[in-house]
């Protein structure tokens, strides 16, 4: 089941033509991932303070399918498609209604605060399955 995060396109999200600037889709999906992680019960601040683990994006494969425009109401759908002890792979889709505007496959790595690879605690990893 997909996690859904709703948002609206603001003027600041657009270019001179009134369409969403391409890099802002990355911000939209970041918000969707953050809300997904929060909704499955993972407190990222606690993950860092108690386990010394943070998430970092290591790879994004993205397809821009159709433009979003000023004042559009969008949804970001997020699904975990694969987990390993140290990585999460998420598929994210930005939609306006049923129209797919943007799709991405995002790989997140678990890292120490020093940037070294880390394992997610097993009980935490279960929350993403």
Overall description:
This protein is an alpha+beta fold and 129 residues long. It has one domain: Hotdog Thioesterase (Thiol Ester Dehydrase, Chain A), CATH 3.10.129. The protein has helices at residues 24-39, 44-51, 122-125, and strands spanning 3-8, 53-64, 73-83, 87-96, 99-112. The protein has a 5-stranded antiparallel β-sheet with strand order 1-3-4-5-2.
Give a brief rundown of this model:
With 129 residues, the protein is of the alpha+beta class. The protein has 3 helices and 5 strands.
Spell out the key features of this protein.
about 130 residues; alpha+beta; Thiol Ester Dehydrase, Chain A; five-stranded antiparallel β-sheet; 3 helices; about 20% helix
CATH domain class name: Alpha Beta
Physical arrangement of strands within the biggest beta sheet: 1-3-4-5-2
The CATH homologous superfamily is called Hotdog Thioesterase
Could you give the distance between the termini? 11 Å
Element order, helices and strands?
EHHEEEEH
Query: Rg, please?
Result: 16 Å
Number of domains: 1
List the helices and strands and how they pair.
Elements: E1 3-8, H1 24-39, H2 44-51, E2 53-64, E3 73-83, E4 87-96, E5 99-112, H3 122-125
Antiparallel strand pairs: 1-3, 2-5, 3-4, 4-5
């Amino acid at each position: 089941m997909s996690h859904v995060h709703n948002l609206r396109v603001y003027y600041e999200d657009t270019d001179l033509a009134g369409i969403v600037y391409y890099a802002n889709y990355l911000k939209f999906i970041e918000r969707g991932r953050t809300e997904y992680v929060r909704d499955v019960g993972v407190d990222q601040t606690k993950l860092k303070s108690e386990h010394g683990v943070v998430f970092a994006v290591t790879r994004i494969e993205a397809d821009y399918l159709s433009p979003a425009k000023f004042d559009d109401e969008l949804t970001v759908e997020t699904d975990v498609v694969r987990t390993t002890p140290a990585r999460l792979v998420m598929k994210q889709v930005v939609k306006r209604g049923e129209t797919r505007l943007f799709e991405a496959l995002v790989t997140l790595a678990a890292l120490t605060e020093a940037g070294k690879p880390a394992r997610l605690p097993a009980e935490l990893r279960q929350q993403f399955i």
